[in-house]
Amino acid sequence: MLIFNLPEYKKLAQEIARGKSEKIKRGGFEKRIFPNGESQLILKSKVAGENCAILGGISAPNELIDLLFLSDLLKKDGAKKVIAVVPYFSLSRQDKSEPDKSWGMKSLSNIFLSSKFDNIISLDLHNEYGRKMFKNKLVSIETVQLFADQIRKICLQDYCVIAPDEGAKARAGKLAELLRCRQFGYFKKVRTNNYTKHLKYHGDIEKIAVIYDDILDTGATLISAVKELRRLGFDEIYIFVTHGQFTGAKWKQLSKFGVKAIYATNSIPKKTTSKLIKELSAAGLIKKYLLSSPRK
């Protein structure tokens, strides 16, 4: 198999294809941008009869266009199968139809289903409803084992697994189950346009809090949760998230309220040098799926 990557995902692609005798090799292409702003992709690898994967994001419009152009180019040049590897599936929170608002996930499903991609893989999609829009072409790989292993490595004692809202209860529950941790808690909350307010914490209280969620965006939800946990008597707090967006600067306040570390996968290329953030590589999970997926 050949794996191609958009520029920001070079490091992750290198990890996936690491090893001299690996079954996954890196493919190459060049992007030419003309004076008028139009672009063209030029393939640098032979792909006839090969299974191919394209690793990248879809947050920026040009990223989505490049993914689509490259998938079409690979199929045109004879690739047997083309898989989109989109670790963080942008717009996954736009999974419901609302009057007068665009429906992000539905629009993306229409685009991908009409593309040359045979299937798409992502990490911890926001919810199952969004995945169903893709008619079984979208696979969501769970990362919970990655975090469970890390928690065991840092040897935490007397901790409680906590979901920052009701939507994260199932996800956090899986982590607690893997860790055989009986101490569990969650928040009930209401969200407005200007702030997030946690109404009440439900669950156990221990010395250490392990908060688990899929996305850390601005950090507003987590800041509210952490403040309340400190008030309730938790001494140390660790945050584990699949997708660390780290938008703006508000999330940096987390260190002021007893957060010892934020563990996030490399699903989104890291853009901050904060020592608070500890990166966990999802390369092994992606590689395992690519090598086990059907070849036809």
UniProtKB/TrEMBL annotation:
Protein EC: 2.7.6.1
SMART domains per record: Pribosyltran_N
This protein's GO CC annotations: cytoplasm; ribose phosphate diphosphokinase complex
Keywords: ATP-binding, Kinase, Nucleotide biosynthesis, Nucleotide-binding, Transferase
Domain Ribose-phosphate pyrophosphokinase N-terminal: 1-111
One term of GO molecular function: kinase activity
Enzyme class: transferase
Classification via InterPro entries: Pribosyltran_N, PRTase-like, PRTase_dom, Rib-P_diPkinase
GO biological process, any: 5-phosphoribose 1-diphosphate biosynthetic process
Domain of life: Bacteria
Stretches of the chain forming a coiled coil according to its record: none
KW Signal (keyword) present: no
Catalytic activity: D-ribose 5-phosphate + ATP = 5-phospho-alpha-D-ribose 1-diphosphate + AMP + H(+)
Protein name listed in UniProt: ribose-phosphate diphosphokinase
Lineage: Bacteria, Candidatus Colwelliibacteriota
